Amino acid sequence: MGKHQHHEHQGESLADAARANLEKSGEKWTDTRAAIFEALAGFSRPASAYDIAELVSTARGKRVAPNSVYRILDLFVANNLAMRVESANAYLANSHPGCEHDCIFLVCDTCGEATHIDDELLSQQVRKVAKNQGFSSIRPVIEVRGICQKCT
Amino acid sequence: MGKHQHHEHQGESLADAARANLEKSGEKWTDTRAAIFEALAGFSRPASAYDIAELVSTARGKRVAPNSVYRILDLFVANNLAMRVESANAYLANSHPGCEHDCIFLVCDTCGEATHIDDELLSQQVRKVAKNQGFSSIRPVIEVRGICQKCT
DNA sequence: GAGTGTTAAGATACAACATATCATTTTCGA
DNA sequence: TCGAAAATGATATGTTGTATCTTAACACTC
Ligand SMILES: [Zn+2]
Ligand SMILES: [Zn+2]
Ligand SMILES: [Zn+2]
Ligand SMILES: [Zn+2]
At the N or C end, where does chain B have fewer CB atoms within 10 A? Predict the structure, then answer.
């Protein structure tokens, strides 16, 4: 848990929060977006765009093309409703949309589960290292691959 | 630069160091491996397996299949002759093979160049966060995407 | 309500990244 | 030289991601 307060939403409540957040940015909460968010939030592990496309297609009885999923996931990431786990080529729903910070993901190489950590101090240090090298528009990618406790 | 001393090899010298290191592990320095290492070391940015396959194939006038390149890159990574940049799906030659540490990569979204940083303190903190969560076999992935000084 | 512009989503194709499997060649010791 | 083991090749296929164009939905004006 980070150093600041925030709700960890789930289920209905999470979708509502996501919707509110997206609409606050002037974007629409369409049926397709709702379906994709629901699917994403339903996964307990990082889900690939193709995982989501398949699930949503089945659930709605109507095909959603992967490129549409990518578009919407990009929108979600840009608006902080979801995060991309780079080392897994996959996405996670943000359980506290609207709360912006650099996330740290611990990904289990055995079960695929990802633990989401916030550590402002640590991520600020990473940003600082990059800034010292003259970087701008900094986006830290802090992940750890390993074996989780359950799988040990 | 890290807190410890090490040579930053280049060209012939780098290949020699890589070779020595690989052979120390009981692995062979074959022609194909030498060619792939040379190609990899010749790139100034992280190179994909397919980039390398193409370059080596052309240079030798004999096709190297991508899967062979992947195999050899995996071997290089396992023996610390190369590093994989996760957020770029690409590889970099290790300019000080044999020196083992968690690398930090700053990758420019504009020009693709990657700056390699070592910060033992920082990477240890990341390891610690994972350890606190019960993770084992920890492999930190610390990268920063952004715009480099040159491209600003 | 018809016309018009804008945004969202679909269809399709393809590019890029990665692995699986089996065959062939090379290496090296017995 | 023979046979086993390791390295590489050939080929196929799986997975991830983008480009381009079309169609559908929506809102706004007239
Ligand atoms: Zn938070
Ligand atoms: Zn696990
Ligand atoms: Zn070092
Ligand atoms: Zn740059």
Answer: N
What tens digit of pLDDT does each residue of B13-55 get?
A: 899 999 999 999 999 999 999 999 999 999 999 999 999 999 9
Distance measured from the CA of protein residue B36 to the C1' of nucleotide C23, in angstroms: 23
Q: Is residue B116 part of a domain?
A: yes
Question: pTM above 0.90?
Answer: yes
Residues A118, A78 share a domain: no
Assess whether A70 (CB) lies less than 7 A from strand D. yes
B73 plus B129 within the same structural domain: no
**Domain total for chain B?**
2
- Region of B98 please: left (phi>0), alpha (psi -120 to 50) or beta: left
- Contact criterion met (CB < 8 Å) for B145 and A142: no
Range of the domain at A67: 11-93
